[in-house]
Amino acid sequence: MNISEVRNNVEFLLDATNNYVLVLDFDYTIVYASPLFEKDVPLNQNEKNNFISRLNFQEEQLFQFEKARTNTSFEISSVHTINKDSRHITWRFKRLTSSASPLAYMVIGIDNTDAILAQENKLFLTDFFTFISKELRNPLHSIIGFSELVKNPTIDPHKINIFKNIVVKNSKRMRYLLGNILDISFAKSNQLVREDVVFSVSGFMDEVLHEYKTKLSDSNIELYVKNNIPDKFLEVVADRKKIYKTVTHLVANAVSNTNSGFIIVSCALEFNSLIITIKDSGKGIDKNELDQINEELHSKYPKFNKGILGVGLRLVSAYISFLGGKFSIDSEPNKGTVVNVSVPVSLYRSDSIEPVGAKLEVDYSSKTVLMIGDFILQFDFIHSVLNETKSTVYYVNNGLEAMELILSGKVLPQLIIIDFATPDKLTQEITGRIARLYGEIPIVAVSPFNTKELEKIAVETGCYEFVFDYKDSEKFHDILKEHLS
Q1: What is the tens place of the pLDDT at every residue in 390-441?
Q2: For the chain: N or C, fewer Cβ within 10 A?
Q3: DSSP 306
Q4: Cα(330)–Cα(308) distance, integer angstroms
Q5: What superfamily would CATH give domain 197-347?
Q6: How far, CA to CA in Å, does 434 sit from each of 429, 439, 464?
Q7: Where along the chain do its domains lie?
């Protein structure tokens, strides 16, 4: 069977523009393809093109294909990337001969993508509206109920004031929920509008601190804000409003899951991305629940009605996706939760110096210092001392990140400073590994607490020196002079 004969046999199918038509010869290589298919999968006329490898069938589909190849006709459903879009295609195979050894198969690829998406959208909308009604029911019932009570002339005026406050509180809750729900729906329907402005990261972090310091004044929770961005990069261009909403939602979530302890909100720059980390010492999340949360956060069509996420986290996920960022949650029961948010930003600066990515230029100008840990109590002091030296400083959260940074070849520090206030075992172990692998790099442990136990752990870990009086600037300058000169 030659190509012209095949063309005559399948010509009537070519006006079905949503379908892909091709013909395979006896060894399942393409001998003809419709123009639409040819546009998406270019054919080399001098070579036969293997159908299976060309369409990237998965192993189970290959098995299905091999099992069915002796039949007169059969189907295989698969998902392929065509013109950068995922398309759901049903491939219908039909033998063009009745012989036991077919000369060719005619294959029609029926594109079901639009129908599948329409069904998914229908299910999503049904689920979404059920979710909305549940979220709004409680505050709405409260407003109606207490409004009726306020109209009763026999009720004590003091109680009426209490009821009015409840109505106001639930009205604000309704406004909050409706605003967030509208933003979620706008995000899902691609109607969110980007509102980029120039803003100060320092002012942004101060605002977060101010908003929650007052709210937490009567609680057992300490809120710390760390700005790890050098002054010359403190202004960025991004959608401040959505980033601020994202951070405040995450802080509120951390507060609700922390009875006592701390919440740390930190920010850094990493290759033109603003990195914001919210870390708490709360109750944490068990693995099964965390898996469910991550599944819902990254689902194209999340289960609103039966899901375990509230409006806040759903909105965070929608904003981060819209801004082209990344969002991750790590947690362990009774050990707290760490949420990392990465959002692309443009650096707004008055000078013409190019951004330096993750490193913070804070001169021993050719020298590099690597800081490992939170340094909650020591950060301002240590940062100011390092700033005076003008050395290049990298900040990482733990030993694992430090090892990854060194092994990547991007950084080989002349000095490592590690926070030893509350050293975790993994950081101890990896710091020890760094000490063994890179013995020429001195590691200095820093702690606000002077205990023999911590000093012993620091020595056993491979630290060159243990410093507890961290406010002794002379001592610190001596250490820096010794190791960076």
Answers
A1: 777 787 777 777 887 887 777 888 888 888 766 667 777 777 888 777 778 8
A2: C
A3: T
A4: 17
A5: Histidine kinase-like ATPase, C-terminal domain (3.30.565.10)
A6: 9, 8, 12
A7: 3-111, 116-188, 197-347, 360-484
Residue 3 structure tokens: 């190509």
- How far CA 79 is from CA of 61, 82, 112, 116, 480, in Å, comes to 11, 9, 10, 12, 58
The residue assigned the tokens 């099992």 is: 67
Residue 159 tokens, joined:
């109680």
CATH homologous superfamily of domain 3-111?
PAS domain (3.30.450.20)
Of the candidates 47, 41, 117, 53, the residue with the CA atom closest to the CA atom of residue 81: 41
Strand 260-269 relative to strand 220-227: parallel, antiparallel, unpaired? parallel
Per the CB < 8 A criterion, the answer to whether 96 and 81 are in contact is no
3-state secondary structure of 331: strand
As a whole number of angstroms, the distance between CA 389 and CA 384 comes to 9
Report the DSSP beta bridge partners of residue 369. Answer: 393, 415
Contact criterion met (CB below 8 Å) for 229 and 204: no
- Whole-number Å distance between alpha carbons of 482 and 484: 6
Is residue 343 within 8 A of residue 323, CB to CB? The reply is: yes
Structure tokens at 477: 């300058």
End-to-end Cα spacing for the chain: 81
Of the listed ranges 56-65, 306-315, 329-338, the one predicted with least confidence: 56-65
